[in-house]
Amino acid sequence: MAALEAANSTASVAELVQVVGDLEARTQQAMARELVSAASRSRRVEEVAALLSGLQEAGLPAHADTAIPALVMTRPVAETAALAGALHRAGFEDGVAALLRASVELHSPCDVIGLCLGLHRDQLDELAESLLAAAFVVRPVAEAVAIAVWAAGTEVEQATVTALGPAFGRRGAQELVELSIALRAAGRHRHADTLPTAVAERRDARAVVNVIECFTDRGLASEADRIFAVAQERSVPHVLALVRALVQGRHSGAAGGVVEQAVARWSAREIATMITDLYNTDHFPQAAQALMSALRSPTVETRLLLHQVDEVSPGAEAVVEMVADTGSPERAAHLLLCLENDGLPLLAEVVFEQTLTHKPTGHTGQFLGVLAQWGAAVMSEAGLYERACSAAGPDMAPLLLALATARQDKAVGSVALGCIRTHDLSDLVVLLRQLHKLDNPIQPRGADVVDQIVGAVVQNWPMEDQASLVVALAQAGLPRDSALLTHRAAASRPKFRSLLRHEQTKHAQKVLSRTFWRKGPTTVSG
């Protein structure tokens, strides 16, 4: 030990490095560590810096790392700051990092600020901020607040405000609440005010929602609101992740608010991205809300928006189908009207067919009633007539029942006229059978529709065709419809009953007819 003390007292830095190397080679690591530690505590700062750098260059960094904590504990803060500067100038950044880590772990809050002031005076503000950031991340909440308090009124006060960002980005949600409360209690409002931005910008969406929940649970709604507001100003991917995280956390109302804000601020392409992303991640209510909000917005051009939605799978048609299928009759009607007014008839037809095909009669009736009230082109009598003319008669049964439910009698009449236009008996029979099959047993409307169809037949078909239909309906097991047609036709044309009797019996053989009594060929037996 006497030899080590002598070496520490008299040897140059280069000789000390040589001695440490020799001890290492003779597997006397404990003696080597003691020599480095003693020299680090007693030598001038410049020599200590040279020693630590020399050990690094000699491939002996472990001894430097071991000596640093003891050095930090024993030397004045001013000397520690001077040593950090010397190591930095020597290019020994690993040594600087080790020195700062030891200071973060071992120095009191007061000494942490003292070290920062020393680094600041040496124009090493970046190192000072690194030290502060690390301290704010790892030190207990009370000590982190004490660091901010000790910095008050000094040249590094602003540095402590800036350095809190990483801590806000990494500490647990509950710790952040405690830290915010403690900072405000200590009068460090500037520090606390940086929390919302730091959390919103540095944390992923799920973590942001978690922090908001923690602040809300503690009754700090204003803090939670500030974080929420800043989080919505981030990039499109982050905001979409925020919507998904809110839904997952059962905050659907808040998620809807985010969607509304995004539609109000974003471009058509960004809104299209949002709609597609939410659709593809099965967030259908939010995707539908985004589309409907965009359609209501005076700043969003509908054709451009849907063109951009159509560029990405699943495409505009699938999205429109989903919106029509998952909302109220009024929403579907509004969607159709917007598409119709913006010159997108094919997509408007998608909404019409989706609602007609996949929704109950009552829902569809409300849908059609709203369209009629708003004067939608699809509900014009001419349009409905053309629709019925171009479709198979039986396919019109859902539309007829829904129109009757909506009390749209003129519209029912227009469709009925289209259905009977071709005088196709079999189509009309199947249509009437479908009407009875699909009719609502609680609030039936089929009879009203059948009455209109029968009325159209009586007014527009020749008596012969009407008589044939009466027979066909009876044979198809629809006696009430057959009787109704008979009654209506006979009331308007006195000769109808005789014509009907002829139609009913024209294929029956008469007892007095020659055909009935004609003998078959005689068989001659051999």
Helices and strands, with pairings:
Elements: H1 2-10, H2 13-25, H3 29-42, H4 45-57, H5 61-74, H6 77-89, H7 93-106, H8 109-121, H9 125-138, H10 141-150, H11 157-170, H12 173-185, H13 189-193, H14 195-202, H15 205-217, H16 221-231, H17 236-248, H18 252-265, H19 268-280, H20 284-296, H21 302-310, H22 316-326, H23 329-341, H24 345-358, H25 361-374, H26 381-390, H27 397-405, H28 409-420, H29 425-438, H30 446-460, H31 463-475, H32 479-492, H33 496-505, H34 514-517
Protein name: HEAT repeat domain-containing protein
Organism: Streptomyces rhizosphaericola
How much strand?
under 5%
Helix tally? 34
What's the alpha carbon Rg, rounded to whole Å? 44 Å
Query: What's the story with the biggest beta sheet?
Result: none
Span between N and C termini?
A: 150 Å
Structural class assignment? mainly alpha
Determine the mean pLDDT.
89
The share of residues in helices is over 70%
Q: What spatial form do the alpha-carbon principal axes imply? A: rod-shaped
**Low-confidence region ranges:** 522-526
Q: What is the total tally of β strands?
A: 0
How would you characterize this protein structure?
The protein is mainly alpha-helical and 526 residues long. The chain has 34 helices and no strands. Helix 27 packs antiparallel against helix 28. The chain starts with a helix and ends in a 9-residue tail after the last helix. The relative contact order is 0.03. The C terminus is likely disordered. This is HEAT repeat domain-containing protein. It comes from Streptomyces rhizosphaericola.
